[in-house]
Structures are given as structure tokens and as C-alpha cells.
Amino acid sequence: MMRTPPAASFGSEPDLSRTEDTEFVNSRKRKNYPDKEEINQLRTDIQKMFENLKEDQEFKFQKLNNMIIDIKNQNKENMISNETLRKTLEETTGLYRDLKQKYDTLVMESCAANNKIKYLEDEVEALQRKQLETIIEIKNVPVTENENLNEIINQLHNSLKVSVAPNQVRQVYRKKIAQNKPILVEYQTAQIRANILKAIKSYNMTNKEEKFNTKALKISGDPQPVYISEALTPNARRLLYQCRDLKKKHDFKFCWVSNGRILLKKSEDQPAILIKSSEQILGIINNVTTPSSAL
Asked: pTM above the 0.90 mark?
């Protein structure tokens, strides 16, 4: 009886199903768990991390705490400084108040003193003007050797046709301290002086071509103009000089002297201005040089 031969088996052919099962089983059995040493190292690292974090937090906390302490100290110092500043300010305010009071007192005293000085200056000016109210000043009369001033004055009276008795002339002299050495004549009364001044004005109006000069006084040599005016105080002289300069530069028509006082006039239709001080003259100059202002 013949049997069917068994299936042929080749050694080179692997049993695939068996191989796959075996590998699957083996792969499931191998698990990658950390060993104890790794776990301990991890624990150590974590602890170290927390320690570092703690140290960092403590450092930051200490730093913050120090800052807070510094701020408190600064605030305390500021409070002390503010208190010191407040006291200093109070002391300074008190000192300023005292100084202000003293300053105001000094200003008041200065104003009172200035007013008194101005009053005294006016009084002195009035007294000097009173002393000079009988005196005339004759300028530009040449000095001659062995001159006789009384004869010159007599000739003055004759030329002006003014009757003056010898006893009505108190004294005649030259003002030696002046550069041109004018002749001063002092009369008994202010009326005689007024008569002389009126006569010289009339003479010059009548003789416009040849005003009063040395020829009228019988003085030899070429005729020289002679000027006769009121004797003025030093202050009036200064004001007259300034007013004449103002008249020349700013087209004022009149500037004259009356009883020792200086008067200024812009034109015939305007009122005369009595000049009392240099400050007043400066004010007039400022007014005439400012287009929008008027006298």
C-alpha cells in the first residue's frame, strides 16, 4: 500500500509565524524603567534646585528688605530735614519781616530827609536870591591898569540916562574868582536895579545896530559888547545854562531871567514855564523828543 509522502520541509525557510510571535512576546517583556540610582540623582537635582530657588528668594527678600529699611531711613532723614528746613524757613521769614520793616522805616526816613533837604535847599536858594536882588552883573568889560570902577559905573548911568545918587550905590567890585572877572554893582534897593535892567533893555532895543558896548562906557580901544544882567545864584546859573542849551537844540523861542528865576517859553502863544530843577529840564526834553507827547 502506497503512502502519500510527507510534505517537503526546507531548512532555509523560516517559520515566520513563530518568529513574529516570539519577538512580540520578547518586546513586551522589556520595560525601560529608571533604576534606583537615577531616581536618587533626580531627587538630588530637584532638592538642589529648590535650595537654589530658596537662596535666590531669600537674597531677593533681603535685598528688598534692605531697600525698605533704606527708604524708611531716608524718610526719617527727610522728615528731620523738612523739620530743620521748616524751622530755618520760619527764622528766615522772621528775619525778612524784620528787615522789610526796617527797610520801610529807612525809606520813610529817607523820603522825609530828602523832603527836608529839598526844603532847606529851596530856603537857601531864596535867601541867596534875596541877597542878590539889588545886584547887577556887568560882563565883558576889559580890565585896565589903574581902572576906576566907580567912574565906569557913573558912565553906565549916564549912558543909560538913569539917575542914581552916589549914596545909592553900596559897592562896586570885580568878581575875581570868575574867569572873565565881571563887575558887580550893589545898589541900595531892588528898584534901582530894576531901573538899570529896564534901561539897558530899552537901550538895546533902540540901538539894534550898535547895542551897549565899551564905547558907551568911554573905554578906549575897539568897541566890545557889554552884557548887563541880574546877579544869579550858582543854582540859577546852572539852570540858565541848561535852559539856553535846551532853547538852542529844541526850538524854544524864549529863555530869560526875572527876579532871579529862570523862565522858558516854546512860542509866543504858549505860557511861560518856571524852571526849578535840572530834572524838570530833562522832563521837558523827553517830552519834546517824544512825538506822541506834548508840553
From this structure: no
